[in-house]
Amino acid sequence: MSFPIASVALVNSVLFGVYSNTLLALTATSHQERRAQPPSYTNIFIAGCTGGLLQAYCLAPFDLIKVRLQNQTEPRMQIASSMPRYRGPVHCASSILREEGPQGLFRGSWALVLRDTPTLGIYFVTYEGLCRQYTPEGQNPSSATVLVAGGFAGIASWITATPFDVIKSRMQMDGLKGRKYGGMLDCMASSFRQEGIGVFFKGMTLNSARAFPVNAATFLSYEYLLRLWR
Ligand SMILES: C[N+](C)(C)CCCC[C@H](N)C(=O)O
């Protein structure tokens, strides 16, 4: 539990830090001036994609360890072996390093980059679009608007991210017991061949249901901290 919490803190600070600074570089307006001079959606999209790209690289090893630990269900079913393969996040990281090398920690990172880059552009465009729609010109959005816009931004982002999320997780699990897939494209093709188009939408409802409260709270904290520190 402490492991995902620590990784969420790191990854969100990278995402929001890179997003804000890229937007600042593109528009030359500070956050306070942005209500009077709103940035274009193109600039918001580019800044979101840049944040997504960098967060994907920071997230890759943490996400891989999380996926491996969450999928570790065999030992409970095998009465003979009482020890799980990975005893915790540190043991998992060191076993992967030993057994699969440093690149093992980045398995599936291409799919993660493709999952996060465009969809985090969509995330910030949705958030800004909804805030602008429901906020009188020149004013800051209310907390209720921030919560709803943040929640829907999370849903929009997760709906578009789910196909690559499925591939990413399959690639991350590959390597545990030999290699099943030749690469990302092979993983996509063989998943499609065996399970049909529906495979790319697995977990979409659950991802979206989780995304609303998580991202409502994320954007409320972001706006609150920006106003606190200006
Ligand atoms: C790009 N992708 C959809 C994967 C994530 C977008 C939202 C990020 C947020 N930290 C969350 O976990 O919901």
TrEMBL record:
Keywords: Membrane, Mitochondrion, Mitochondrion inner membrane, Repeat, Transmembrane, Transmembrane helix, Transport. Signal peptide: none annotated. It is found in: Mitochondrion inner membrane. InterPro entries: MCP_dom_sf (IPR023395), MCP_transmembrane (IPR018108), Mitochondrial_Carrier (IPR050567). Its main location: mitochondrion. One of its GO terms (molecular function) is transmembrane transporter activity. SUPFAM superfamilies: Mitochondrial carrier (SSF103506). One of its GO terms (cellular component) is mitochondrial inner membrane. Solcar repeats lie at residues 39-133, 141-228. It comes from the Eukaryota. It is a multi-pass membrane protein. Belongs to the mitochondrial carrier (TC 2.A.29) family. PANTHER family: MITOCHONDRIAL BASIC AMINO ACIDS TRANSPORTER-RELATED, SOLUTE CARRIER FAMILY 25 MEMBER 45. This is Solute carrier family 25 member 45. The lineage of its organism: Eukaryota, Metazoa, Chordata, Craniata, Vertebrata.
